Amino acid sequence: MDKKEIISNFFKDYNLNQENLNLIIQQAYFKKLPKDVNVLADECLGFVIVLSGNFRAFIMSNTAKEITIFELNKNDACMMCQDCVFEKIAYNIFIQSTQECEILIIPKELFTMLKDKYPKIYDYVLKLMAMRFNALVNILEQALFTPLSVRLNEFLKAKAKNKIISLSHEEIALHLGSSREVISRIIKTMQKEGFIQQNRKEIIILKDL
């Protein structure tokens, strides 16, 4: 799929005039990112459409403990900029590629113009922000009030593909805001109880968690 087709499909319901649609096609650009790149560290990318790969958005405590808020996969979109949407709002959120990714970027200035000009895009941005904020609140509530063993069970079920989870204990700990040692201890108990089987960097679900 070429750039024109991607952009036309994404904005087909937003009533853009042809001049602005052409402007997006002219200024938007592709970018490939290797694994483990913090996309908010060095530059403001702007509005991003994920074409392939996976990103993990997370917050970090003062002790460098991380907890995942949401993930971005193929066809997802996000404002990958600390002040891309509303200049008065600042987010202390990190977004990192978990594998090789390809994205289509609409520059910050252009997307801000579109947001201000088209009510449907403005509404879309508000809904996107609300969804991300709700995800943050839900994750923090779970971290505070839900036992880690329950959160781990739900995480494994969500990540399983054909009952296989291809993540290390360290990676799982980063997602859940815990330590590798604690996650390993819970997983070892689950294995003893016959719920899972462990191989190298792979967990297999044997029966319903």
UniProtKB/TrEMBL annotation:
Residues 146-209 form the HTH crp-type domain. The keyword Transcription regulation applies. Signal peptide: none annotated. GO terms for biological process: regulation of DNA-templated transcription. The keyword DNA-binding applies. Pfam families: HTH_Crp_2. Keywords: DNA-binding, Transcription, Transcription regulation. One of its GO terms (molecular function) is DNA binding. This is Crp/Fnr family transcriptional regulator. It comes from Campylobacter jejuni.
